[in-house]
Amino acid sequence: MEYLELEQAQKRVEELRAVIEKNNRLYYDQDAPELEDFEYDTLTRELKELEAQFPQLVTPNSPTQHVGGTPSGRFAKVTHAVKMESLLDAFSFDELRDFDRRVREAGVEPEYVVEIKIDGLSCSLEYENGTLVRASTRGDGVVGEDVTANVKAIRKIPKQLKDAPEFLEVRGEVYMPHEAFQHLCAEQELQGAAPFKNPRNAAAGSLRQKDSKITGSRGLSIFIFNVQQIRGKELTTHAESLDYLKSLGLPVSPRYHVVHNIEDAIAEIEQIGQNRSKLDFDMDGAVIKVNAFAQRDLMGSTNKFPRWAIAFKYPPEVKETTLRSIEVAVGRTGVLTPTACFDPVFLAGTTVARATLHNEDFIRQFGLCIGDTIQVRKAGDIIPEVIGVTRHEEGAQPYEMPTVCPSCGAPVVHLEDEAALRCVNPECPAQALRNIIHFASRDAMDIDGLGTAVATQLVDKGLVHSAADLYTLTLEQLLTLEKFKEKSATNLLQAIAHSRENNLDKLLFGFGIRNIGDKAAALLAEHFGSLEAIREATEEQISEIDGFGGVMAQSVTEFFAKDGTTDLVHRLADAGLNMQWKGEPKGDKLAGKTLVVTGTLETLSRNEAEALIVKNGGKASGSVSKKTAYVVAGTAAGSKLTKAQALGVPVLTEAEFLALLNEEPKPET
How far, in Å, are 15, 383, 520 from residue 565 at the CA level? Predict the structure, then answer.
């Protein structure tokens, strides 16, 4: 690593902690990480190296010093009797050899067990006299969530063990097999819901459902990989414990081998990697563990990792295939997006035959020609992407993007400072379809049951040309759609009718105005109070909204200046849609002040705390600066707290924050 001065290192450490902590919250608490696994691991490694180089920068709240996420308020909290630790990662065989050297330097002549690392949600199961009495998630490693009712609904998890010891706590990984994942995604598409991005997110989201019947219907399974506690049975090695658990009827790791040296362990890891594409579940690497429990006790753990185990992370799997064609789709804002169509390859658990090519510049970068041999991988084992060309066909001509829209035939244009080509025809049917899908989406008008498949049928049959047409649909028209019966048609009509009452910000976001996301839509609605006032506002007036720039203001005025928008608004008004902001009047206790919420609060979620800030006239920000009035800090506050202290920004506890606003603490649920 390049040497850095202390001040530079501190700045980089704060940046890394902020990114890693955000992704940890998304991964553990919301089951929706933003970073790819390899990118996350690289950033974490950089942070560890900086903290090793500058020990004075290490804090107890650093993400290198704790495990996992925070328990949500949805489930009861469970304190783990035995900490559910994470594992140190290795990305090369030399790092595995370094691990072996450290083990031997601790006075241990090890025998190792090598096993597959499952990509799912870590879970503890507790059995008393063979009866499953409690199940809990890992949470932060010390405190997790009680998910007993949901786990009992999973058919493949034994509720009763034969010839079991007096007490047994085991740890495993709840996962979703590929077949179950594909079935779930197909169901979600039919229902108009956004499908999970990968089996890991699907498993986590399914296990943490409020309704255990939903959990039970999702085809979840588990692999047990460790004994946490046991009474009434003596076990001396890890391999012996897995064999014993298997004899009790528990599903243990599908592949585990005892080896006698690190080179044999590496050979086994290579073998696992070669067979990963044959598995019916996602794996997150391979694990090497010291086999003998007595030797493990001798080695102990750091405050985060056991010293007797290490996880090997495989690089993303890359396959070669032949590019057969390039399809160009038109998005809701008219952007033309090219997609590579190639001979099917099996990658990270699924067969893929398509991958985005992003834009014209990306195609030119590789000089793509039809017939090329291309390299494909799944970014983060999720999203297929083209990463290179290994062979061009002789005499092949580089692919050229179309000069007219593939949907409506109108000329396409390059707007200033954009890499994308764009169709600017307001009557383009492809844009109409995408706009309707967006209008009905969860963050917009939230019309349950109106997803891509249904919207496509409505547009193809000529029943819907714009969002306003949704509010004139009849039962008879919906019954002409494929797979629609009277009940599903009635449910959709009710969902459409219910959307009339949505608040103004939902409607504004549903319009799909360029550069205006859901938060900007809420600011716009709250500031002006009505759609009519927004339509009459000038760019200068819109720019006065805190957080709005000139580009955003221009996007709003340009959208409402279009003839098509005027017609759409009039038709929606005639259909009875709410066009007024129904928010509560703001207080002034925090008027003109910017606050930052960081860490885990005792009774409020981050969103709830930020809503209180806005309600009292303040601004909730995601970053700390000299202009920050207060930082509201909970547990595991991390780099934002450190920066606030360095800048002399006042720090409030949750209780002090609520007292400032004269608010009562939120009762425990």
Answer: 42, 35, 19
